[in-house]
Design a protein that fits this description.
The complex is a heterodimer.
Chain A lengths: L2 E5 L2 E3 L5 E8 L8 E6 L5 E7 L6 E3 L7 E6 L4 E6 L8 E13 L2 E9 L3 E5 L2
Parallel strand pairs in A: 2-11
Antiparallel strand pairs in A: 1-3, 3-8, 4-5, 4-9, 5-6, 7-8, 9-10, 9-11
Chain B lengths: L3 E4 L2 E4 L5 E7 L7 E6 L6 E5 L3 E2 L7 E6 L2 E6 L9 E6 L6 E2 L3 E5 L1
Classes of the chains: A mainly beta, B mainly beta.
Chain lengths: 125, 107
Amino acid sequence: EVQLVESGGGLVKPGGSLRLSCAASGFTFSSYSMNWVRQAPGKGLEWVSSISSSSSYIYYADSVKGRFTISRDNAKNSLYLQMNSLRAEDTAVYYCARVRAHDGFGELKYYFDYWGQGTLVTVSS
Amino acid sequence: DIQMTQSPSSLSASVGDRVTITCRASQGISNYLAWFQQKPGKAPKSLIYAASSLQSGVPSKFSGSGSGTDFTLTISSLQPEDFATYYCQQYNSYPWTFGQGTKVEIK
């Protein structure tokens, strides 16, 4: 059974830092690209960052570029999100999500399949 | 960035009703469109990818269609467990973007 378990959330002051972790099990972690998606209280879903299976390709939403860093440790089956210079608008539940590839007219396209339960990050003084 | 617009934002329906939710992309995304269901306090659940392909384990009462800019999610016969918020998402290009959500409530 695929399991994704996030941890590391909590209360942090504006300008502070936090590191989220996602522990993966039930599948060959090193074969899959992974993502972070967040959801502010009462709001919709926002994609945050993607990392390919070997960390060769990394993408960020403009809202977090330069402040957040995604990484992974395939030996530990773990995904991370280092969040620096946090702002009130970063307050959200952060979800770890796996993606699968399908052949899209000659190129691979990636879609979400499994999600973790989320970890709440609150940025407030 | 590609904007995803869902309609309606909310709807009220009865058990047994057929429900259709629409998602429109601001530019063509081929069929790189996914749908998700989210219940209060829970993580999103993946329902459909590639506009019309069901994720493993998702019941066939859910179906998706569309290509280019216009897409639909249909629930053939609404059951109590289907009352939730539904999101569409494009994965044609980064940044991946979601619709604002459609809340399906009990009439």
